[in-house]
Design brief:
- With about 325 residues, the protein is of the alpha/beta class.
- The protein has 15 helices and 9 strands.
- The strands form 2 sheets. Strands 4-3-2-5-6-9-7 form a 7-stranded mixed sheet.
- α3 links the parallel β2 and β3.
- α5 (about 135-145) runs parallel beside α7 (about 175-180) and α13 packs antiparallel against α15 (about 315-325).
- The longest helix has 14 residues, at about 80-95.
């Protein structure tokens, strides 16, 4: 993996920051990695292929960038800090001149990114600013469908929420929305001492693989609207929590039953596929709510009796939904 001498160590990071007049700021979530072994581990865990085009958000002084460049076809580094964006090509040219041609620096906010120059990106590998980690990942997955894999370093608690499964207290909006795009898993812890300045929290790696979204006739935006509404009042039953979304509690119950979901369940019990089904029957939904309701009424509350604790689908409503999706 690359030339060891090219990677930045603690003294290199501090010297470079001093020369540039850079002081890490909490506003931009800047905590620079100063441990070469950590960046090697990140790249190794990301399993990059020689043909990959990698997006790196928040490259900072270049610690991870220098480790990525020898392993991939191209690195597109998105940096919001103008000083750091300007200095990164110089750092790469000085420490790994033979790889300088593989680097493309995009100065700007990753949350406003609509595309990148050159070949389509295939992977995201980044030490993400803690304060925008989840929004950045979701935005890039939505904006860049060519992204197939990701490995990101985030705050440990955020990592737990990103990979959480239905049924737990930490399962919520980030968990469901990320699951829409694919499968996420924890890929190891990262200690505080590898950063400068050292954060007050631990970090963790999250690996992601894109998969097809769940079957639904609703748009992603419509599904996410249901998710947002369900978790805005997560202690309430879905009948109550989705009342505003549906127009009334009664309409919310009708949509839930049509989708084969127990109205007494709470949002934390549902997986992304269930939210995708519900969205089909909401305001402006694409499926016939009255027809689906006829199928659900035959089973009544008994359709939910076995699985009311985890929000599983009622058999009658589910069968009606499946028939319409075929």
């Amino acid at each position: 993996m690359g030339d060891v001498q090219a990677l930045l160590g603690p003294a290199d990071v501090r010297e470079l920051a001093a020369r540039l007049g850079v002081r890490p700021t909490k506003t931009l979530g800047q905590n620079f990695v100063i441990d070469a072994n950590t960046v090697r581990r990140i790249v190794r865990t990301a399993e990059p292929a020689p043909g990959d085009v990698v997006i790196e958000v928040g490259p900072g002084l270049g610690s991870l960038t220098l480790a990525l460049l020898p392993e991939v076809r191209r690195v597109v580094a998105v940096e919001i800090d103008p000083v750091l964006a300007g200095a990164l090509p110089e750092t790469v040219a000085a420490r790994a001149p033979e790889l300088a041609g593989r680097l493309e620096v995009v100065r700007g906010d990753a949350l406003r990114l609509t595309g990148v120059p050159g070949p389509e990106p295939t992977a995201l590998v980044a030490n993400l600013p803690y304060n925008v980690a989840v929004p950045v990942v979701l935005h890039l997955l939505a904006t860049l469908p060519s992204l197939r894999r990701a490995l990101v370093m985030v705050q440990s608690e955020v990592a737990d929420r990103m990979v959480a499964a239905p049924g737990g207290k930490i399962y919520g909006v980030p968990s469901v929305k990320l699951a829409w795009y694919g499968e996420a898993r924890r890929a190891g812890p990262v200690g505080r001492a590898v950063f400068w300045p050292a954060p007050n929290v631990d970090s963790g790696l999250v690996a992601f693989t894109r998969t097809a979204p769940p079957p639904t006739l609703a748009s992603r935006e419509a599904v996410f609207a249901v998710v947002d509404a369900a978790f805005a009042q997560r202690r309430k039953t879905l009948r109550a929590a989705l009342a505003g979304w549906a127009g009334s509690a009664a309409e919310a119950e009708r949509a839930l039953r049509a989708a084969g979901v127990d109205p007494r369940a709470r949002g934390e019990a549902l997986d992304v596929a269930a939210f995708a089904r519900i969205a089909q029957y909401g305001p402006g939904g694409v499926l016939d709510l009255n027809e689906a309701e006829d199928h659900a009424e035959g089973a009544g509350d008994g359709a939910f009796a076995e699985d009311s604790g985890d929000g599983a689908r009622g058999r009658a409503g589910d069968a009606g939904a499946r028939r319409r999706l075929q």
